[in-house]
Amino acid sequence: MKKVALVTGGSSGLGLELARRLGNLGYIIYLLARNQERLSLAVNELRTEGIEADGFPIDVLDERGLLSVREELCTLYSKIDYLVLNAGIVKSKLFSSYEESADLRQQLDVNLWGTILPTYVMLPLLKPGAKVLMVSSGGGLTGIAGYAAYCASKAGIVNFGEALRRELLCKKISVYVACPGDFDSPMAQEAEKEAPRWMKKQSSAKLMKAVDVAGKILTKAVGSRFLILPAGEVKMLMLLKRLPGTLSDKILDAILPRPAASDT
């Protein structure tokens, strides 16, 4: 029987590239995304490449919708072999600049609860040998000015994934959390547009492409490895975080963007 993969946030960017990679490995692909038009385009794109694919126009926060997806996949296959939790949003602005708390809550809801809820709903379909891949961020490993709510939500994914991994070890279900750095994606492009000048990247280094990030992530999502760091910049952040407290803070304060008094 063929293996089945369900990918949330799969209609574009990293989610679509992860789906494509898995499809090329022989998985039957099911994409889950809110936007019906983009979802249909993504499914058709995969099909033209010879990948068996379909989609569900479901919000990751819609529990009833997720339950209907589970019921359909249970009827068809009785299993999910690879669950990819990639749905997310980002807003780049100072915490004090938010006019409505709802904008803060939305990032926590979509990024964190939008990872936890689909995992909770789909867990009964995960059998021994199945894999769960959650997409966090370098911002889930260290706080970055201008991304307070985003970093909080992504840090939650890291800790949720680590806890779930230990719970599922006895069932031989693998859990991985990927923490990519900056890469070229529709979401990153939108965040760059709305970011104030002090937040914009100082480096002229070319951003990684989503297809390359997807390849690195899936290559590393094997064995007992838990945390996947596909970018050198994120590995460096992890090393700096391990330095003695004040030294780590001084170095990170010097290299990460932060506002001046005039920006607040």
TrEMBL record:
Q: Name one GO cellular component term.
A: membrane
Gene Ontology MF: a single term: 3-dehydrosphinganine reductase activity
**Gene Ontology terms: biological process:** 3-keto-sphinganine metabolic process; sphingolipid biosynthetic process
Q: Where is the signal peptide, in residue numbers?
A: none
- Please list every transmembrane segment annotated in the UniProt record, as residue ranges: none
Q: Which InterPro entries match?
A: NAD(P)-bd_dom_sf, Sc_DH/Rdtase_CS, SDR_fam
Q: Which family does it belong to?
A: Belongs to the short-chain dehydrogenases/reductases (SDR) family.
Return the protein name.
SDR family NAD(P)-dependent oxidoreductase
Q: Organism, per UniProt?
A: Chitinophaga silvisoli
Cite the source lineage.
Answer: Bacteria, Pseudomonadati, Bacteroidota, Chitinophagia, Chitinophagales
